[in-house]
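Incident log, structure service

09:12 report received: a user says their structure output differs between two submissions of the same chain.
09:20 pulled the input from the user's history:
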Amino acid sequence: FAVGWWIMIDTAVNYPSSAELNHVFHVCGVVSTVGFILLNVVPLSAVRGDEDDDSCSNAGYKALFFFSCVSLFASVIVSSYILFGVYIVTGKHPVWPGIAVFLQNVFISIGFVWIFQIKFTIS
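09:34 re-ran on a clean worker, output below:
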């Protein structure tokens, strides 16, 4: 997670111009970060379905978990579009800002999978 943000902050400092790195592209990282944080709010028992009652909070946790997964994977898809559609296909130079946006979201998603595996391994 931290490596993804470190790459993006370094790129934003090195390419401050909006012509090189459009500042709207930072939204992908923010959305994936919100999804990453929301994942940590969901207790593991709600995802597993260990609780016998189908309370509203359990359904809410499952919806929150689904929303966090969708936001993370959508951010990876949008960042790949930014890399290929905006930078590579059009021949925009430098290409590194597009690669940085993509790597940021991939590393945040890797952190998501890693945290999720730790949650399942511990219990």
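09:41 both user submissions now match this output. Likely a transient worker issue. Closing.
09:42 reviewer note: Residues 32 and 72 are 5 Å apart (CA to CA). The mean pLDDT is 89.
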